[in-house]
Design goal:
- The chain contains one helix and five strands.
- By secondary structure, it is of the alpha+beta class.
- It has a five-stranded mixed β-barrel.
- Strand 2 and strand 3 (57-62) form a beta hairpin.
- The protein is globular.
- The model is unreliable at 7-15 (pLDDT under 50).
C-alpha cells in the first residue's frame, strides 16, 4: 500500500513537471520604434526588409492604412512596433515617409 502510494505520488510530480515544461514562454510586449534605412522589396507576393545604417535589419509588415510598395528601394523613416520572432525582428509599420529616392542596403 505504501509502495503504491509512493508510485502514485512520483507519477503525479513527474506529469506535473512535464506539463510545466510545455508551457510556452511569455512573449515580450511589442516596442515602439522609429528607424531610418533602406526599404527593399523582394519576391511575389512581395516581402519588405528595412536595413538601418547601424546594420540592424527588420522584416516590415504594413500596418493599417500603410502602403509599402511606393517606398520600395528608397531611404525611408518608418515608425511602428517591433516584435521579435524566431526569424528575426518584425516591424509593423504605422507610418512610412521617404527620406531619399535612392538607397544603398
Amino acid at each position: 500500500m505504501l509502495r503504491r502510494l509512493s508510485l502514485v505520488t512520483a507519477l503525479t510530480f513527474a506529469l506535473g513537471a512535464v506539463g510545466a515544461a510545455q508551457d510556452p514562454a511569455p512573449q515580450p510586449e511589442p516596442q515602439s520604434i522609429s528607424v531610418q534605412g533602406c526599404l527593399q522589396q523582394a519576391g511575389d507576393p512581395p516581402t519588405y526588409t528595412l536595413t538601418a545604417a547601424d546594420g540592424r535589419s527588420f522584416r516590415v509588415e504594413a500596418g493599417e492604412s500603410v502602403s509599402l510598395a511606393e517606398y520600395a528601394n528608397k531611404t525611408v523613416e518608418a515608425a511602428g512596433t517591433v516584435t521579435t520572432t524566431e526569424a528575426g525582428e518584425v516591424l509593423t509599420a504605422t507610418s512610412v515617409k521617404a527620406v531619399s529616392d535612392t538607397c544603398t542596403p
